[in-house]
Amino acid sequence: MPPCDFKPEEFKGMSKERMLEIRQQNCFPMTMKVTFYKKPVFIHQGHMQWLWDVDGKRYLDLFAGVATVSVGHSHPKVTAAAERQLKRLWHTTNIYVYPTLHEYCEKLASNLPEPLKVVYLTNSGSEANDLAVMLARLHTGNFDVITFRGSYHGGSPQSTGLVSNHSYKYPVASSLGCTNTMCPDVFRGIWGGSHCRDSPVQTIRECSCAQGHCMAKDQYISQLRETFATSGVGGAVQYPKNYLKEAFELVRERGGLCIADEVQTGFGRTGSHMWGFQSHGVIPDIVTMAKGIANGFPMGAIVTTPEIAASFNKAVHFNTFGGNPVASAIASSVLDTVKEDGLQKNSLDVGTHLMTELAKLRDKYEIIGDVRGKGLMIGVEMVKDKASRDPLSPEVMSEIFEDVKDMGVLIGKGGIYGQTFRIKPPMCVTMDDADFFVAVFNKAVHNCMERRVR
Predict the structure, then answer these.
(1) What average pLDDT does this structure show over 240-247?
(2) What CATH topology corresponds to 16-68+343-451?
(3) Where are the beta strands (DSSP E) in 262-399?
(4) When comparing pLDDT for 188 and 438, which is higher?
(5) Could you tell me which CATH number the domain at 78-341 has?
(6) Strand ordering across the sheet containing 50-53
(7) Is the pLDDT of residue 232 over 60?
(8) What GO CC annotations are associated with the protein (predicted)?
(9) What is the chain's mean pLDDT, rounded?
(10) CA–CA dist 13, 402 (Å, integer)
């Protein structure tokens, strides 16, 4: 494991047995259902890309609280900004004019292209997506919303209607007017080949496309056209080149607005750009963001044009905590830290290296089907075999997942079938960290293959 000169405090708190007892008795059963690992990790303290459990064991955190800790756990610059604001003012609301909110809104808007210059601050990504949909409906007079199958956009009653993954759906009516269209996944989808992605790593599928032309993109666009004609209107998936550009054109031809959910892809994580949509050569009408926006402090935002924002004045909307002074101060420090620490470039450099090394393991092992992503937003899709591309079973996924954790690395899981390992670390991770993970993952997959042979 790469060295770390930070020494955590000794844990002197509640026993693990007591914590589990409370978790089972006083927390919703859902809390236990989503608890990672057969032997849970009891987290005590964090510093940058590292976490320590209550027993003092150190872990390399490559999941960052679900892609939320953007610049590093308890980053000194961000911590100092939070402390300064806490000593000055904990809370007031936007019914008053206070400097921290306005300084941050101006700074955030300066990081987005024209005409995206109007900001509304929320508490979460789910809330940001709820408001974005309502704003789009108010502005256009249209009602229907199209999302991709397998997508995830939040857990609120409204945003779950945008989600097509059954794991997040409850048997109650939610968010009427939402339609799902085929996800343009060039690995698991119907169409795709080895030249489709704008990525350092392509799929293992053969490609018969002519030079400079992507047949998969044409086929997925035709499915979107069919969705428009018939409806009345992702674990980390990369679209075919130019798909999003044509999709935006189709939506706008029909009087719709395009919303980019940058909750996980924003703030430099994809490396090549500050925002995920920029690598597709498009400018959305509304952008939603959260997670990394404040390095784990609860906050979200929507950014749109002045014209669209004016549609929000048809009634009154008030948010008690949106733009809270502490949240604004932390978020402002996060933007500064991303630039001062060169974290967008680090995401590009370390992420590209990590994907390239993981692609070597893909070529080595039959059960690693696909490696994809940009920057430090990476998915590794596991399969029973490369020929069928059938998802690896949950049981085998759990074996590898536990093994990686026991060797000192924390990653995530996702995908429609839970078949994709998600790697979305704090953006301060190093090349040595990446190499350590590759060695751990190689060992975990090797152990899995040996168990299969036995």
Answers:
(1) 90
(2) Aspartate Aminotransferase, domain 1 (3.90.1150)
(3) 286-289, 300-304, 368-374, 377-382
(4) 438
(5) 3.40.640.10
(6) 43-47, 50-53, 58-61, 409-410
(7) no
(8) mitochondrion
(9) 92
(10) 25
